[in-house]
Amino acid sequence: MKNALSLAFCLASLGLFAQAQDKGKPLFNGKNLDGFSIHSGTATYRVEGDCIVGKTAEGSGNSFLVTDKEYGNFELVFEVKVDNALNSGVQIRSHLAPNDGFQPKLGGKLPKDRLYGPQVEISTDGMAGRIYDEARRGKWLDTKEPTGETKGAFKKGDWNRYRILAKGDRVQTWVNGVAIADMTDAEDAKGFIGLQVHGIGKGTGPYEVSWRKLIIRDLDQ
Fold this sequence. Notes:
With about 220 residues, the chain is mainly beta. The protein has a single domain (about 1-220), classed as Sandwich (Jelly Rolls), CATH 2.60.120. The chain contains 2 helices and 14 strands; from the N terminus they run αβββββββββαβββββ. It has helices spanning about 1-25, 150, and strands at about 25, 35-40, 45-50, 50-55, 65-70, 75-80, 90-95, 115-120, 130-135, 160-165, 170-175, 180-185, 190-195, 210-220. Strands 1, 3, 4, 6, 10, 11, 12 and 14 form an 8-stranded antiparallel sheet that branches. The longest helix has 22 residues, at about 1-25. Residues about 1-15 have low confidence and may be disordered.
């Protein structure tokens, strides 16, 4: 029965991925980083084949490759692979601090250009797919405790399929067909999407994270 359920989840994930590809548009043009800009740190981003590859910069804080466009209600699917020692994520409905000392309503002061807001976790520690409030409240926004199934959804050293559905106050996430987060939060109705390369300590790295097949379906259109 367990194997049958796992197969059903896998088939459902593939179906939803294909549906988003059919109805959505590429977030990344597959050629260059037009439509994006780097904010908050000094990590590097490059196009390699059909992927966007982010590489850590020693001494840098968290860096983000941020869309020029803001999105409100959307479905986003992508595949991601990350070095085991690196924590990463995808920001959704996020915002850029307009000046030094800017203070979001629910957080402390930020430097100019710092990206803040909900982040869908990419990591190998069992927290993949959860939603964290980056550079603001500094806590998990989804409140359901992880289970053995959700902790095991992300595959180390391999490509992982993510699906993010943001509609109204509700945000849901799936990793490889496994439902991870289901949260309701009214703070962020619209904002940028950002691909994170996490900061690293001195004498560590370099590490990389790669994204491909980024497809977005804008539900506001």
